[in-house]
Amino acid sequence: xxxxxxxxxxxxxxxxxxxxxxxxxxxxxxxxxxxxxxxxxxxxxxxxxxxxxxxxxxxxxxxxxxxxxxxxxxxxxxxxxxxxxxxxxxxxxxxxxxxxxxxxxxxxxxxxxxxxxxxxxxxxxxxxxxxxxxxxxxxxxxxxxxxxxxxxxxxxxxxxxxxxxxxxxxxxxxxxxxxxxxx
Length: 183
Fold this sequence. Notes:
- By secondary structure, this protein is mainly alpha-helical.
- Among the domains are: 2-75, Periplasmic binding protein-like II (D-Maltodextrin-Binding Protein, domain 2, 3-Layer(aba) Sandwich); 132-182, no CATH class.
- The protein has helices at residues 9-21, 23-28, 45-55, 65-70, 90-94, 136-152, 154-159, 167-178, and strands spanning 2-4, 41-43, 78-79, 85-86, 132-133, 181-182.
- The longest helix is centred in the C-terminal third of the chain and has 17 residues, at 136-152.
- The chain is globular.
């Protein structure tokens, strides 16, 4: 197993999934950006993991999907919670959010989703921002940027091999952006 040697959100998503589906993994290793890997070789970043996988015949590793898609790396078809074997793609990533009721605080995991067409290892990216900012001009600029990202940025996200947000999550995110104000 080739794993990240650096602290990584990708590791957090991967180990979070393993933690959900395997009590033995949860008890022995756990989840997080850095974990005590029981076996394997570490690689620095997506590039490092990919390089070690390519150099070690028969090895398996993990990288973020956009990196795998851009690099034309072979990817794993996995059995999801519904019992279907799914290959990772933008569509199967988005499928993980189908039918999900998102909490108001937007703290959620889409790994091991109930969706029949969902790839089982899925994560989200968050932007952390103050809801009250000292500089009103900066608050307005941040709101304008985030609103653009959420309403106009889907095509760019897809070009970069990131799945767009479903409408219900986009609406919740826009409500959070609207709450940002200057003091």
